[in-house]
Amino acid sequence: MWKGSELAGMRQTLEASDVDIVALAHEKSIEGCEVTPGMAIAMQWLNPGVTLNGHAHSWWHLFVIQCGSGVLTLGDADGVNVSNGDVLLVPAWTRHGFVNTSRHEPLAMLNMSNMPQMALLSNFADSHGLITTQP
Fold first, then answer.
1. pTM for this structure?
2. Which Gene3D superfamilies does the record cross-reference, listed alphabetically (predicted)?
3. Cα distance between residue 18 and residue 72, in whole Å
């Protein structure tokens, strides 16, 4: 169990950044971030007004918006407004990005993916063709 107050405290210890990510992990390694075999779970925050540029990679994401509001771009489709409670599936190799449209509140997302599975299969790749065994 990871308490919201504990996650917020961990976020406060991070270096200043437009995008903050706290992995729900057992240890600091790709294997340690597997909460369940082959799957990683993290909290991700985009600060107000921040854009996370579109990108694609070999793993899928399942995002659950926890608070805030923004716009999701998925593939070539027009942006879609997202807010608290929305659940977003991003298939592997699908270009995706976010914009936090708020001036005051972070866009907070629970981020689940099969990134550890792809790394262990030596299929940790992005749209530029980079393939490694470690993220």
1. 0.79
2. Jelly Rolls
3. 17
Instruction: Report the CATH number that the domain containing residue 107 is assigned in CATH.
Output: 2.60.120.10
Query: How does pLDDT run across 54-83, given as a tens digit for each residue?
Result: 989 889 999 999 999 999 999 999 999 999
- The number of helix segments (H) and strand segments (E) in the chain equals 2, 12
| CB contact at 8 A, 135 and 76 | no
For the stretch 120-135, pLDDT in tens is 777 766 766 665 544 4
- CB contact at 8 A, 124 and 118: yes
> Residue 9: which domain range?
4-132
Burial of 78 (0-12, 13-18, 19+ CB in 10 A): exposed
